[in-house]
Amino acid sequence: MNTTNCPYCHSYDIVKVVEHGQQSNSQTAFAASASFATIGASVTKYLPIPVSPLIGGVAGAVLGGLFGEAVSPEPKSIGMAYLHCQNCNKQFRL
């Protein structure tokens, strides 16, 4: 038997709801990609062979994106739990 009741309508007809979301690491991957693109463009300026800094920047961005994905941790799952009243359709926490 459910002993928790709704604080709004005092009904005992409530259910527990759990939602799962994920945090994203896209900002970290973008920062690594941008940093490597800058480094790649700078390095190609000083190479003895004629290579455009644009090509170095693109190559650096690709390497930075791969590096950022390889080094970044897995996204964490965030669980959010609350109670939902079937009578008045309002949500509340314990």
Describe this structure in words.
The chain has 94 residues and is α+β, with helices and mostly antiparallel strands. It has helices at 26-45, 53-71, and strands at 14-22, 77-85, 91-92. A 3-stranded antiparallel beta sheet has the order 1-2-3, with no helix packed on it. Strand 2 and strand 3 form a beta hairpin. Helix 1 runs antiparallel to helix 2 (53-71). The mean pLDDT is 78.
Keywords:
21% strand; 3 strands; three-stranded antiparallel sheet; 2 helices; 94 residues; single chain; rod-shaped
Question: What is the topological layout?
Answer:
Blueprint: E1 14-22, H1 26-45, H2 53-71, E2 77-85, E3 91-92
Antiparallel strand pairs: 1-2, 2-3
Helix pairs in contact: 1-2
Morphology: rod-shaped
Q: How much is the average pLDDT?
A: 78
Question: How would you characterize the largest beta sheet?
Answer: 3 strands, antiparallel
Largest sheet, spatial ordering of strands: 1-2-3
Concise summary:
This protein has two helices and three strands. 41% of the residues lie in helices and 21% in strands.
